[in-house]
TrEMBL record:
<dbReference type="InterPro" id="IPR020846">
    <property type="entry name" value="MFS_dom"/>
</dbReference>
<dbReference type="InterPro" id="IPR005829">
    <property type="entry name" value="Sugar_transporter_CS"/>
</dbReference>
<keyword id="KW-0472">Membrane</keyword>
<keyword id="KW-0813">Transport</keyword>
<feature type="transmembrane region" description="Helical">
    <location>
        <begin position="423"/>
        <end position="444"/>
    </location>
</feature>
<feature type="transmembrane region" description="Helical">
    <location>
        <begin position="360"/>
        <end position="381"/>
    </location>
</feature>
<dbReference type="Pfam" id="PF00083">
    <property type="entry name" value="Sugar_tr"/>
</dbReference>
<feature type="transmembrane region" description="Helical">
    <location>
        <begin position="184"/>
        <end position="205"/>
    </location>
</feature>
<feature type="transmembrane region" description="Helical">
    <location>
        <begin position="34"/>
        <end position="58"/>
    </location>
</feature>
<feature type="transmembrane region" description="Helical">
    <location>
        <begin position="98"/>
        <end position="117"/>
    </location>
</feature>
<feature type="transmembrane region" description="Helical">
    <location>
        <begin position="70"/>
        <end position="91"/>
    </location>
</feature>
<feature type="transmembrane region" description="Helical">
    <location>
        <begin position="269"/>
        <end position="293"/>
    </location>
</feature>
<comment type="similarity">
    <text>Belongs to the major facilitator superfamily. Sugar transporter (TC 2.A.1.1) family.</text>
</comment>
<feature type="transmembrane region" description="Helical">
    <location>
        <begin position="393"/>
        <end position="417"/>
    </location>
</feature>
<feature type="transmembrane region" description="Helical">
    <location>
        <begin position="123"/>
        <end position="144"/>
    </location>
</feature>
<dbReference type="InterPro" id="IPR005828">
    <property type="entry name" value="MFS_sugar_transport-like"/>
</dbReference>
<protein>
    <submittedName>
        <fullName>MFS transporter</fullName>
    </submittedName>
</protein>
């Protein structure tokens, strides 16, 4: 059973929703998005930093392949546990508090990693850091969704979410220079910068009025919403329009039926399929690509990393395309098209053969363009599918499938690569094809609808 939401005044809850829906996007919204986005940028930076540190630490500490694999895996394990734990904390204690705790945890543990003196100490610090890394992103997505009005919500949320792939690309670019020139410690020292953000998060971000209202804390919801309204009026220089009724809220306690009941079971199964399939493809391909270029096609290290970076940049283009177009195309058509596009590119590699690195680069980058649409879009879509009383735990539970996929995907490649590259690409192409059908048939459309209308 999830934490119960106190029964409150339904009319006051509806008024909170109506007042949020009348708010134009202002500089306050931009500030909030920048502050949270900066934390998310460093979340991505810290998550990938280990990839650029291990090539130095492996010979320095004489690490075996199983030890390297364990170092990578414990980070994902920590993120899995962190996503679930911080989802519960956000549902019980609030979105902003949970975000701040997650940021403090992953930033301080990044600092600890910089001073790790052995393999064992780094293993412990990376595991603890993973708790914060796994907790921050889903709760941030929930908060951004809850302060956004229905019209233009897709663009508003996803232009924030784009910062995560930007952080991944930045980690790759900076890592290639910092580690050889300054040393591996500095990657983790940079990752500790978000600790400073906590000051700004506490000053700029009020608690989610939607969450406060569903908890029956109407006085606090009024103060939080009044703060946002004053900031918006100051930014726009115009009085706000009168709130108009937009949705009728259901005042009831949260329960597992909010994930698995008659209304929500189909949504849960579909969105879990999207999370698992999208990230199975994403992590399965990107983690192995540089190694494939080096060992199969015998490219130089510089060329292999360059090819990998090209694919990351193409993926970033995919996320931007999704952010700018999802409010016009809609969620279900975009996701079904993206899965179909990834399936086509990957199955083409199986059909015509992965005979040259250029062919692999072009078609895998095409697949990654589409999988990046899914990887970012699902962070928008999942919070829309669930009521406020259960949104944080529902999103965090869904992101757990991301962590499973990130652990399983690279292992599948490792197990199948001996059969041939074509078999690997066919396997991922079939996963994408099945997910395309499931999404096209069973996903619901949420474009332009108020959260309380979608999920009463």
């Amino acid at each position: 059973m999830l934490t119960p939401a106190p029964v409150g005044d339904r009319a006051r809850l509806d008024d909170v929703v109506a007042r949020i829906e009348r708010l134009p996007i202002s500089t306050w919204h931009v500030k909030a998005r920048v502050v949270i986005g900066t934390a998310t940028f460093f979340d991505a930076f810290d998550a990938l930093a280990i990839a650029f540190v291990l090539p130095v630490l492996a010979p320095l500490w004489k690490l075996s392949s199983p030890q390297i694999g364990l170092m990578i895996s414990v980070g994902y394990l920590g993120q899995l546990v962190g996503a679930l734990a911080f989802g519960w904390l956000a549902q019980r204690h609030g979105r902003v508090k949970a975000m701040i705790w997650a940021v403090i945890l992953f930033a301080t543990m990044s600092l600890a990693c910089a001073f790790a003196w052995s393999y064992e100490s780094l293993l412990v610090f990376r595991t603890l850091q993973g708790l914060g890394l796994g907790g921050e992103v889903p709760i941030a997505a929930v908060y951004i969704s809850e302060i956004a009005k229905a019209k233009g919500r897709g663009r508003f949320v996803l232009l924030y979410e784009v910062i995560f792939p930007v952080g991944l690309v930045a980690s790759g670019l900076l890592g290639r220079w910092i580690v050889p020139h300054l040393g591996w410690h500095y990657m983790f020292l940079i990752g500790a910068i978000p600790a400073i953000l906590v000051v700004f998060m506490q000053r700029i971000l009020p608690e989610s009025p939607r969450w406060l209202a569903t908890r029956g804390r109407f006085d606090e919801a009024e103060r939080a919403l009044s703060y946002i309204e004053r900031a918006t009026e100051k930014a726009t220089g115009a009085p706000l329009p009168q709130p108009q009724p937009v949705a009728s809220s259901h005042d009831k306690p949260a329960s597992w039926s909010d994930l698995f009941g008659p209304r929500y079971l189909r949504r849960t199964l579909v969105v879990w399929t999207i999370w698992f399939s999208a990230y199975l493809i994403t992590y399965g391909l990107t983690v192995w690509l540089p190694t494939i270029y080096r060992t199969v096609f015998h490219l130089s290290l510089e060329d292999a990393l360059q090819y990998g970076l090209i694919t990351q940049v193409v993926g970033l283009c995919g996320t931007l395309t999704c952010a700018l177009s999802i409010d016009r195309l809609g969620r279900r058509p975009w996701f079904a098209l993206a899965f179909a596009g990834a399936a086509t590119a990957l199955c083409a590699l199986w059909l015509i053969g992965a005979g040259t690195p250029t062919r692999v680069l072009v078609l895998v980058s095409t697949a990654f363009f589409f999988s990046s649409v899914l990887s970012i879009g699902v962070y928008l879509y999942t919070p829309e599918l669930y009521p406020t009383r259960a949104r944080a735990i529902a999103v965090s539970t869904a992101t757990a499938w991301l962590r499973f996929a990130s652990m399983i995907g690279p292992s599948i490649v490792g197990a199948m690569i001996g059969i041939g590259l074509e078999a690997v690409f066919l396997a991922f192409g079939l996963v994408a094809a099945v997910a395309a059908v499931i999404t096209a048939v069973f996903a619901i459309e949420t474009k332009g609808r108020v959260l309380e209308e979608i999920s009463p």
